[in-house]
Write a structure and sequence with these properties.
heterodimer; A: 100 residues; alpha+beta; GMP Synthetase, Chain A, domain 3; three-stranded mixed β-sheet; globular; B: Glutaredoxin; four-stranded mixed β-sheet
């Protein structure tokens, strides 16, 4: 995690905790289903970071990412999530990779 | 405020300032963990940047998302170009790509 590198401990999740459950949770299986629908070949690994159904990390690897930069790859995943990112899905740490 | 006015303001900010972070809170008092990470990376690299607090400006807060087709804040811009949000900045910092990109774009960084 970032903490050690930059000195002060950083815990993005803490900010959301403070605000109670203002954000609607989303199931990991639903996130995976939406990504799979848009990127059928994708290898997807989703982790519920705190076990609260609200803070996820996702690793997505797909051949569709080939020749695209990181911003474009992430945009494709966000598009797959059909507007949920930044809304009901607030905390999704995303990592993408292009498959051969 | 319509999108054109907001987009003009965003364009002005990112063209007048080499490095801009649209964030929640300020570089000194970030009000979101993700924004805090990006500000800390910039500070750690010794990069001079302008932080724009979107919490003070609802027009920019929504407008920046359509401007870059990116659904979340923070957002980092270098020389007018959208670089990414928290995950990408972190990843690029860890691989050294961020430092390399700054150098290529002629942005001064401090080596530690």
């Amino acid at each position: 995690m970032v903490a050690g590198i930059y000195g002060a401990p950083v815990n993005p999740g803490a900010w959301f905790k403070k605000q109670g459950n203002a954000y609607m949770a989303m199931e990991a299986s639903e996130i995976e289903r939406l990504i799979k629908e848009a990127l059928p070949d994708a290898e997807i690994r989703i982790e519920d970071l705190r076990g609260d159904g609200d803070h996820y990390s996702a690793y997505v690897r797909s051949a569709a990412f080939k020749g695209k930069n990181r911003v474009q790859q992430h945009q494709m995943v966000y598009a797959a999530l059909q507007g949920r990112m930044g809304g009901e899905l607030h905390a999704l740490a995303l990592q993408t990779a292009a498959a051969d | 405020m319509d999108n054109n006015v907001v987009f003009d303001r965003i364009r002005e900010e990112v063209s007048e300032n080499d490095v801009v972070v649209f964030m929640k809170g300020t570089p000194v008092f970030p009000q979101c963990g993700f924004s805090s990470v990006v500000a800390q990376v910039m500070t750690h690299l010794g990069v001079k940047f302008k932080g724009i607090n979107v919490l003070e400006d609802p027009g920019i807060r929504e407008g920046i998302k359509s401007f870059s087709n990116w659904p979340t804040i923070p957002q980092l811009y270098v020389k007018g170009e959208f670089v990414g949000g928290c995950d990408i900045v972190k990843e690029m910092y860890e691989t050294g790509e961020l430092q390399q990109m700054m150098a290529e774009k002629g942005i001064q960084t401090q080596t530690h």
